[in-house]
Every structure is written in structure tokens, then in C-alpha cells.
Request: fold
Amino acid sequence: MLWRESGQIRLALETAFNDILDTRMDGLPIANTALSVQAIGFNRFNEDWLGVLLTPWCMNLLLLPGSDSTWCGQASGTSIERSFPYGTFEFTLGSETLLGMYAQCSLFSPMFQFADQAAALAAAQAALQGLLATSAARGISRRDLLRGTIGKA
Reply:
């Protein structure tokens, strides 16, 4: 898939993952029914498109390949590392028929700690903003970043 702009990406992700919600996830107890599928961000970062995919069952950082991406020829299940201003993160490659290859890094799963879509959206936006912030001190985890406990005693 050749991704051209963020609106195209959001529509494709939300369509594909709403289909997964209605089929593969139907009736499974790991879905938070207060949440819906939403693609957040999706702007160019280096050679890829970076954003957050929020679903009723998980929240993932997601990379979609740009035209210069080097990882899109690798097999699903392969791990890759990508560096951001905050630090280096490991992503697992996946593939969906409607999307092609993507790389995902789990932030939350399952999603029962979120009371509603607004709370999950705020966490997703904070994670994306934090990821692109300057480097964190050593020993700080993704969970600390999302909980806002960095620099607090």
C-alpha cells in the first residue's frame, strides 16, 4: 500500500480495524465496549508514517511504511527497532489484507483501565507527544511516560 496522506491512513485503519472488531473480536471478553476504533496522528517520521491506533482491545504505536521504508519486505512477526527523540522502541511487524504491512508497539492491552473514549484518546495523544519529546532519563519506561510520573517524587 502506498500511503499518501494522513486522512487516507486514518480512513483505511479505522475501516480495517472496525471490520476486525465486528468479526474476529465479536463476543470476546477482552474488548472494552466503552471504546471505539480511532487512528490518531499519522504524520511522517523519517521514512515512515507514525501514529497511534486505539481499539477496544489495545492501544498501539503504529508505523506504516513510506516509499523509502526498509522493513516492509520482512515477514510478519519479525521485530524491528526504531529510534525516536524519547528513546528506542521495539515494533512487531504485522499485515492485514486491507492495509498491507505495518509495525506495532503495544502501549496498553487490554483497555479496561479507560472509562471512556476521551480518556483513551488523551492517553494516546500524550504517548505520541511524549515519544517525540527529548530523550528521557535512563530507566524510565513507556508506562511511566503514559502515567505522567516522569520527574515526580
Notes: Residues 6-22 form the longest helix (17 residues). The beta strands are 38-45, 48-54, 59-65, 79-83, 88-96, 100-108. The two ends are 46 Å apart (CA to CA). The mean pLDDT is 91.
